[in-house]
Amino acid sequence: MFGVVDLPTYLAGLVLIILLPGPNSLYVLSVAARRGVRSGYTAAAGVWCGDAVLMTLSAAGVASLLQANAVLFGIVKYAGAGYLAWLAVGMLRAAWGMWRGRGEERAEETGPAAAPGERPFRRALVVSLLNPKAILFFIAFFVQFVDPAYAYPALSFLVLGAFAQVASVLYLSALIFSGTRLAAAFRRRRRLSAGATSAAGALFLGFAAKLSTASA
């Protein structure tokens, strides 16, 4: 179908990959829990746009260039790791602020780690784009299901990308609505908010460390 081979295997692998936790899904969940459904979908839109860009670059062969060029790969890798670490530090600072002011009633109004200047779409987009492992994943995974004899390989990539985006929409939607359920508890309990934000920050530090040791 449209140059796609072994579609059932692709879909099964896609589901497993989508379900693996990562910085994108964690950030969307965090935004939804702190700021509600609308902001959660704003962050999710950043993820989807970032994934679309990576898929397009993969289809164009840019990912292969990164894989072949160690210097370029290293620049992207450390830039991504640095950005994730910066986000982690921000989360940990916000958590520390909540621990110090956990008795304040204004937590019920603002919610946990409410950041007026935060731009969920932009942050999620950057997190998505500065992820060399994701770029290499797309090129390594997608090409296995494209028929090399098909006359229109771009159409094959488009079909595979569409399935990936649909799966991502369903998964992130589930996370967003789960996050809003947590929001009520976060608004009532400052300690719970601080603990969850600390855990998210620690996970982002872990993602940054893992990314900094990634190889092409």
UniProtKB/TrEMBL annotation:
Major localization class: membrane
Ranges that cross the membrane: 12-33, 45-66, 78-96, 124-143, 149-172, 192-209
Topology of the protein relative to the lipid bilayer: Multi-pass membrane protein
High-level lineage: Bacteria, Bacillati, Actinomycetota, Actinomycetes, Kitasatosporales
InterPro entries with a match to the protein in the record: LeuE-type (IPR001123)
Extent of the signal sequence: none
Record's subcellular location: Cell membrane
UniProt record similarity statement: Belongs to the Rht family.
Protein name per the record: Leucine efflux protein LeuE
Key words of the record: Cell membrane, Membrane, Transmembrane, Transmembrane helix
